[in-house]
Amino acid sequence: MNEAVVLTSERILEVTEDVLRRYGLAKATVVDVARALDVSHGSVYRHFPSKASLREAVAKRWLERVSAPLAQIAAEPGPAPVKLERWLRELFDAKHKRVCEDPEMFATYLTLAREACTVVKAHKQDLIAQVEGIITEGVAQGAFDVADPKTAAAAIFDATRSFHHPAHADEWADCTCSTRVDAVLTLLLRGLAAR
Amino acid sequence: MNEAVVLTSERILEVTEDVLRRYGLAKATVVDVARALDVSHGSVYRHFPSKASLREAVAKRWLERVSAPLAQIAAEPGPAPVKLERWLRELFDAKHKRVCEDPEMFATYLTLAREACTVVKAHKQDLIAQVEGIITEGVAQGAFDVADPKTAAAAIFDATRSFHHPAHADEWADCTCSTRVDAVLTLLLRGLAAR
DNA sequence: GCGCTGACAGATTTCAATATCTGTCAGCGC
DNA sequence: GCGCTGACAGATATTGAAATCTGTCAGCGC
Which nucleotide is nearest to A46 (CA to C1')? Predict the structure, then answer.
């Protein structure tokens, strides 16, 4: 198991994800992580000052895996309305896929995210900033008409919570969900559009 | 305590709410309710087949107290856009007030509502039907332009979840909340408006 | 007859003893 | 010196026995 590999924070995080996957959030202990790494649990505390900070780091990795592909979409050229819709649908798809493919892991992520609320807030700010960028672009293109892109971005984020906030995950399997997504997106894009 | 009053379902519900308020959801037992009513707990089971059904009935009462004033607004005459905004703000205010004034009771209500999901679904359907009514009116007035009022009503409901779904209650105290409400309402009303 | 009582069985919760975990640190070995 | 170990104290979780609760029902009293 050990492979004589140096013990880096990165390696600890990878193994921690494995342990979380195998044991579940409630039962996964620092001792389990250390055992999987074939070191004493004291060594883990050399890289992370507490169990909470280790969990936070795991949460951060997960959230970065969500925002990275979105940032890519936000950076592409093209008409803002199309891009915004693509961006939002990508966000919803990413979340929906996660909960469908591995609901147990999603529950773990959800609890973890609740704890690491600083990290989650930063993630939200990051996503809203991306939306703001797209909206600003849309205003420049003459496609959108909004007073304040920052406020509008927050509003878009708030108005789509049903489809990206984990609290509503139990509705995502519903067959009417895709219709509801369409309806909300239509409404919001009409609301942003210059006339 | 007893007052020799006949034991009706209504009286049981009132006292049950008292007991919930005093003991909290987790600790309130059917025996507590019976004791407060000065009867044996067997008598309570004459009116409600189970503890779950008693809780469900309490939840139903609570939800009816939310929807009744809204139904009144929906029934009033006047321009649909104004009415819709008033209706939504009334919904948000009702919820926000509850959570601010008595957060503990709100937590009780929240857990109860999770259990009584049939009752909650019916409540949601009721609210969406009210919105649908307002939208249909707005279309008739020429103020709104929507393909399908039912779908649009559901979309309005989905898009305002941040401000009425209890899962987001912890954000309602935030000072930016009122700005965010304004932003979302502006966006949605623009989205519905005929041009 | 009709509604209430109170004892009962099985399910659930509580509580305290026990075990495990978190976070620290002196000291070992490379 | 530097990083790791493993023993330790205090905090947290687990466990199983005892207490309480849910839901039923035969029988009492109006």
Answer: D3
